[in-house]
Design goal:
The chain has helices at residues 14-25, 32-39, 47-59, 103-115, 132-135; strands spanning 63-66, 71-74, 85-91, 97-100, 123-129. It has 140 residues and is α+β, with helices and mostly antiparallel strands. It has two domains: 7-74, Arc Repressor Mutant, subunit A (Orthogonal Bundle); 80-131, Ferric-uptake regulator, C-terminal dimerisarion domain (Dna Ligase, domain 1). It has a three-stranded mixed sheet, with helices on one face. The protein has a two-stranded antiparallel sheet with strand order 1-2. β1 and β2 (71-74) form a beta hairpin. α1 packs across α2, α1 (14-25) packs across α3 and α2 packs across α3. The chain is flat and about 50 Å long.
Length: 140
């Protein structure tokens, strides 16, 4: 397995690279235990190995944690580490997650925080609903 999508991925440890590749290939968010199950054949045996790798990948901006699902996704934007706000659409039907970026949303959240004398460092917005694929009737 070799990581893709991220230019600085070459600086990752073996475990970080394996975790990032697993998330990059997944079509849905994965829990830490699902990641561990997928990587047992690559020598990962303990949950702590996965959690340490995830922690570093999140700090590096390669991975995001979805609080409402208690799971993780690979970053879909190369420059999202420059944004204080990351937003996701999460389909309640098929679990598909799409990372979306909106400078106006980021600006509004910063203004909201400023208005309450709060210095925003990072925010994650999760929009739950149903994706277009799950709402459009399928034709036989």
């Amino acid at each position: 397995m070799t990581p893709h999508h991220h230019p600085s991925a070459g600086q990752l440890t073996k475990n970080q690279s394996l975790v990032l590749e697993t998330l990059s290939e997944a079509n849905i968010p994965l829990s830490a235990y699902t990641i561990l199950d997928n990587l047992r054949s690559h020598g990962l045996r303990a949950p702590l190995q996965v959690y340490r790798a995830l922690e570093k990948l999140i700090l590096a901006g390669h991975v995001h944690r979805l609080e409402s699902l208690n799971s993780f996704v690979a970053c879909q934007h190369s420059n999202c580490d420059q944004n204080k706000t990351v937003a996701f659409t999460i389909c309640n039907s098929c679990d598909h997650v799409n990372e979306v970026s909106d400078p106006e949303l980021s600006s509004r959240l910063n203004n909201l925080a400023d208005g309450h004398s709060f210095q925003l460092q990072h925010s994650v917005v999760e929009l739950r609903g149903v994706c277009q694929d799950c709402t459009v009737p399928r034709t036989a």
